[in-house]
From TrEMBL:
Residues 24-146 form the NusB/RsmB/TIM44 domain. It comes from Pseudaquabacterium terrae. The keyword DNA-binding does not apply. Belongs to the NusB family. This is Transcription antitermination protein NusB. Keywords: RNA-binding, Transcription, Transcription antitermination, Transcription regulation. The lineage of its organism: Bacteria, Pseudomonadati, Pseudomonadota, Betaproteobacteria, Burkholderiales. Residues 1-14 have a biased composition (Low complexity). NCBIfam families: nusB.
Length: 162
């Protein structure tokens, strides 16, 4: 008898790994960006609201602040970078996908300590958790091309290494 079914059942029964502080900061920043994109609330209002959310105490607060404030402050510039690779105006994207793309582009541009593949993967995970059915595929494609613009040396080295 094969051990495959037992292994699959055991893997399925494993509790999910706890979310990292950075992942929590990205989720909260996305929620804040959604609030900003849909309702146009002030950054200070959004920050206060997000800090009241359950689990905020487990988030990377510095990263959250950088993402939320940075994405809002640089939205026009980040949208210009993304515009080369989206199939419509960023204002026509769903607010979730737009927010995820802003976070991904911001991390690619400013968070050099995060490898570009990790930044893309984290954005894809956000899109899977909060976006539409195939939104994560769209996010992946757009950010993969955007990474080539924002981190050409890193992307070329990774692709050359295979």
């Amino acid at each position: 008898m094969s051990d495959a079914p037992k292994t699959a059942a055991k893997a399925a029964a494993k509790p999910p790994r706890p979310k990292s502080a950075r992942r929590r900061s990205r989720e909260l920043a996305l929620q804040g960006l959604y609030e900003w994109l849909v309702g146009g609330a002030e950054v200070t209002t959004i920050e206060a609201h997000m800090r009241e959310q359950e689990g905020f105490d487990k988030a990377d607060r510095v990263h959250f602040d950088a993402l939320l404030q940075g994405c809002i402050a640089e939205a026009v510039d980040l949208d210009a970078v993304l515009a080369r690779h989206v199939d419509r105006k960023t204002t026509e994207l769903s607010p979730v996908e737009h927010g995820v793309l802003l976070i991904g582009a911001y991390e690619l541009k400013h968070c050099i300590d995060i490898p570009y593949r990790v930044a893309i993967n984290e954005a894809v995970e956000l899109a899977k958790a909060f976006g539409g059915t195939d939104g994560h595929k769209y996010v992946n494609g757009v950010l993969d091309k955007t990474a080539g613009d924002l981190r050409p040396v890193e992307v070329a080295a990774k692709r050359a290494a295979g």
